[in-house]
């Protein structure tokens, strides 16, 4: 069964931060996104093999992937992308309707040439705001390999709490079984920290 694309129409796109513009991806973004994703230090941690441009274009054309990918632009240049997937929390069947659209998973990819400028943090903070304010989710989570220190450090800068450290639960394409980490933040925690 194919999952319907998520509805991000509650967000007024593009969203602007101090330095960035964030907007839903289009098929016109395939080449600049592929350029970033094929950089070895980026590709190393991605969940899909993006080494083939045509395969990447096929994946991006899938409605769910296109609807969960947001483009980060700095001065009209694509410098990376964000992942935002809104879904349902686990719930007992008699209250499952109240769990619909209550959780989001987020992620990020940034061109290494732009690292060290706080851009990923700026974009991810806005992603949290979008999830909590515009979309009204109650919980946001992010996952990574434990060896991907820049990613989990960003999660901690965002105020996310490490909820799981799983031993050798994640299979990496070249490194074998690695430890994985899950971080999360609740809407009320996010509001209290602001």
Automatic annotation (TrEMBL):
Family annotation (PROSITE patterns): GNAT
InterPro entries tied to this protein: Acyl_CoA_acyltransferase, GNAT_dom, N-acetyltransferase
Enzyme type, top EC level: transferase
One Pfam family recorded for the sequence: Acetyltransf_3
Domain N-acetyltransferase, chain residue ranges per copy: 20-184
PANTHER family, sorted: GNAT FAMILY, PUTATIVE (AFU_ORTHOLOGUE AFUA_3G00765)-RELATED-RELATED (PTHR43792)
Protein name: GNAT family N-acetyltransferase
Originating species: Nocardioides hankookensis
């Amino acid at each position: 069964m194919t999952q319907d694309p998520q509805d991000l129409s509650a967000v007024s796109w593009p969203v602007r931060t101090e330095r960035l513009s964030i907007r839903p991806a289009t098929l016109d973004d395939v080449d600049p996104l592929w350029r970033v994703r094929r950089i070895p230090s980026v590709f190393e941690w991605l969940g899909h093999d993006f080494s083939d441009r045509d395969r990447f274009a096929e994946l991006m054309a899938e409605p769910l992937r296109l609807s969960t990918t947001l483009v980060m632009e700095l001065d009209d240049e694509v410098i990376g992308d964000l992942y935002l997937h809104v879904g349902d929390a686990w719930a007992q069947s008699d209250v499952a309707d109240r769990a619909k659209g209550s959780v989001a998973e987020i992620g990020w990819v940034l061109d290494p040439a732009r690292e060290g400028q706080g851009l990923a943090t700026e974009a991810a903070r806005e992603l949290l705001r979008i999830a909590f304010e515009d979309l009204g989710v109650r919980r946001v989570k992010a996952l990574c390999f434990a060896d991907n220190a820049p990613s989990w450090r960003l999660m901690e800068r965002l105020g996310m709490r490490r909820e799981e450290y799983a031993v050798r639960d994640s299979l990496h394409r070249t490194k074998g079984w690695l430890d994985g980490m899950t971080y999360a933040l609740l809407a009320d925690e996010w509001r209290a920290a602001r």
